[in-house]
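Protein Record: Sequence and Backbone Structure Tokens
======================================================
Scope: a single protein chain, as residues and as a discrete description of its fold.
Tokens: labelled as protein backbone structure tokens, with as many entries as the chain has residues.
Position: the record begins directly beneath this header, with no further notes in between.
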Amino acid sequence: MNRIAVKQARKAIEILYDSTCTVIEYRKEKDPVTKVTSNQEVIIHLDKSCRLSYSSKNKANQTDTANAVEQVIKVFIAPELDIKAGSKLVISSKGRMVEYKNSGVPAVYDTHQEIILELFKGWA
């Protein structure tokens, strides 16, 4: 794909962005005053434009009484943002703020990246 086509495709995708995302990592940081190192939440990216996508799929392990349905939550966001697996993503969308965690390695394309999310239940 040439650069002009990529630029146009990215612009078309970004028009759909209707949410904001803050990316947080949990890592060791040294306090400049006390010189004590401790694990802390560190904001990596603040209020970046994004879009959430929801889909459902049937799980392979169905029983005689129920067919389990799993919801897949995916965020679309700019490709240049470095978002590590296990990061917390706080997404504000349609008047709600929900905390998710990045469940794996992002799929990065020329125009965007896609990250499968899970609800955040705490740091591992």
